[in-house]
Design a protein that fits this description.
Elements: E1 8-11, H1 17-28, E2 32-37, H2 41-53, E3 58-62, H3 68-82, E4 87-90, H4 105-129, E5 135-140, H5 144-147, H6 153-173, E6 178-185, H7 191-195, H8 202-210, H9 223-230, E7 241-244
Parallel strand pairs: 1-2, 1-4, 2-3, 4-5, 5-6, 6-7
Helix pairs in contact: 1-2, 1-9, 3-4, 4-6
Bound molecules: NADP nicotinamide-adenine-dinucleotide phosphate.
Length: 249
């Protein structure tokens, strides 16, 4: 039996990368998916058509999650299309590494406004749709929140904030049967890590020589854990931050 039959999930930033992988995996277990994107309409449409071609249900919804009215509109559209919400995957995020000498207010705000504020606003709106049945919120944090590599002070701080938000909300929402957990990936090969130059850079070599499993990850290394956290298989688990880093700490 499919684990998520009859459930509805919003996956933010699902037009590519980790979010697209999670959207496809949740759909394969029977969930109807809202595929959110900011600008990559083609990518979002491809994820939707793959899901529909496999017999699932999905719609693409454009919304810049760093902008409050667009966050509100994303969940209004979810209500209109599916009338309920069971799973929120807060995946949309950006990573801009920079040495401290190059940190600016803009660099700070662009990352915090999406990675932290966007996640909080999306969660606030999602909670209005999660009724007495409860739900599961999955925050895509990062291994950097505790590995704290150099030249990543701002990005690491956004993800340390996500870990704190995860633990705090787990305590706040447990009585409503809403579980809140985080996945903290190591370096994963995605469109974002390609365009950011990480895949060809020194960080990849460092991970391959240091991580116990000796390689960077793929989106398929992450999505089964999202299915687990979304489903009743993890029904007694909340407030956790799961490192999926090939053993790197
Ligand atoms: P990616 O390939 O760059 O994809 C990012 C996704 O987020 C895209 O769907 C993008 O939509 C969306 N997005 C960007 N800005 C947005 C905004 N303002 N509003 C709504 N959506 C927005 O990224 P990724 O590598 O898969 O990373 C996804 C998440 O995993 C991020 O939170 C990241 O911090 C975290 N993470 C990644 C890694 C890694 O190594 N890849 C490791 C640890 C944690 P458009 O394409 O439409 O712009």
């Amino acid at each position: 039996m499919s684990k998520l039959n009859g459930k509805v999930a919003v996956v933010t930033g699902a037009s590519k990368g980790i979010g697209a992988g999670i959207a496809r995996a949740l759909a394969a277990e029977g969930a109807a998916i809202v595929v959110n994107y900011a600008s990559s309409r083609t990518g979002a449409d491809r994820v939707v058509s793959d899901i529909v071609a496999s017999g699932g249900k999905a719609i693409a919804v454009k919304a810049d999650l760093s902008k409050e009215p667009e966050v509100v509109a994303l969940f209004a559209r979810t209500t209109e299309a599916f009338g309920r919400l069971d799973i929120l995957v807060n995946n949309a995020g950006i990573y801009q590494f920079a040495p401290i000498a190059e940190v600016t207010a803009d660099l700070f705000h662009s990352q915090f406004n999406l990675n932290v504020l966007g996640l909080l606003l999306a969660t606030r709106e999602a909670l209005k749709l999660m009724g007495e049945r409860g739900g599961s919120i999955i925050n895509i944090s990062s291994g950097v929140s505790t590995i704290t590599p150099p030249n990543a002070s701002v990005y690491s701080a956004t993800k340390a904030a996500v870990d704190a938000v995860t633990r705090s909300l787990a305590k706040e929402l447990g009585s409503r049967k809403i579980r809140v957990n985080a996945i903290n990936p190591g370096m994963i090969e995605t469109e974002g890590t390609h365009s950011g130059g990480f895949i060809e850079g020194d960080m990849r070599k460092w991970i391959e020589s240091t991580a116990p499993l000796g390689r960077i990850g793929t989106t398929d290394d992450i999505s089964p854990t999202a299915v687990y956290l979304a489903s009743d298989d993890s029904k007694y688990m909340t407030g956790e931050t799961l490192m999926i880093t090939g053993g790197l700490r």
